[in-house]
Amino acid sequence: MSARSTLLGLVVTAALAGCSADEPAAEPRDDPTTERPSATAVVRAGDEYVALGDSYTAAPGIGESDGRDGCVRSRNNYPHLVAEQLDLELTDVSCGGASTTSLTGSQRTLTGEEVDPQFDALGPATDLVTIRIGGNDFALYQLISRICPALAARDPEGHPCRDEADKAEQDLDDLLDELEDRVVSAVRTVVRMAPDATVLVVGYPSVVPEDGTCSELPLADGDYPFALQVNRGLNAALKTAARSADVRYVDLYEATRGHDICGEDPWVAGRTTIGGKGVAWHPFASEQKATAAAIVAALQGP
């Protein structure tokens, strides 16, 4: 059993052993990576665009969705917005629940459908690729949205989620390092499979507040830093992957700072599903518009 599964297994067990439901905690680590934009090819009308990713790309609940395969891709998600603005031919294979393993292997969706590996959409004719992936690996996002909130009732003013990790003698940094290896491998494979494409690695938005707490993100008080470490660590992994493959990283964390779940104007939903506006724990249309704008700017920039 890997260090990753040991950590997750103990935290899940603790969550099921008697509490309510939700999220994680730990110190935010410094992000040593830097944005490394390579020379970005200019995309032209009619170019072939492939969007890879998980539910933060599929963006369920923000408009009409294609639910045929259970991936629940919204037609208002950022791949569709980018394709419409730049007049691109879009192949959107993002899927709710996808992890890095869904890139190279088939994925069974929540409806029981089996979808092909996302990398099957890539090829020599691909002109543009965006990829945002990693949040579902090792159930990291479930830590924030389900597992650590479930532990919060045990010690609401403490840090029970971090305590469970400490009992397991596991370090979240080690888990994030392993995630980084997976994402680096994935992005390098994209570059190899679509050799003539412009590749953009897209970061995750700000989800966890840097200060303060709120009922929509019902963690124990001391576990907010742990959840913030997960949020920042996902982006550190993606940024490193972009740099390792010499492609551009699109930083959404900075672009969405202050619009986390607890913000006055949140761009990501917390535990409450808002009919017509968004699904719990997923981006609102405002986040997808910000992501699309950042991608278009990156394509038009130096």
TrEMBL record:
Gene3D superfamilies: SGNH hydrolase (3.40.50.1110). One of its GO terms (molecular function) is hydrolase activity. The keyword Protease does not apply. Its EC number is 3.1.-.-. SUPFAM superfamilies: SGNH hydrolase. InterPro entries: SEST-like (IPR037460), SGNH_hydro (IPR013830), SGNH_hydro_sf (IPR036514). Residues 51-270 form the SGNH hydrolase-type esterase domain. CDD domains: SEST_like. Keywords: Hydrolase, Signal. The keyword Hydrolase applies. Residues 1-25 form the signal peptide. This is SGNH/GDSL hydrolase family protein. The lineage of its organism: Bacteria, Bacillati, Actinomycetota, Actinomycetes, Propionibacteriales.
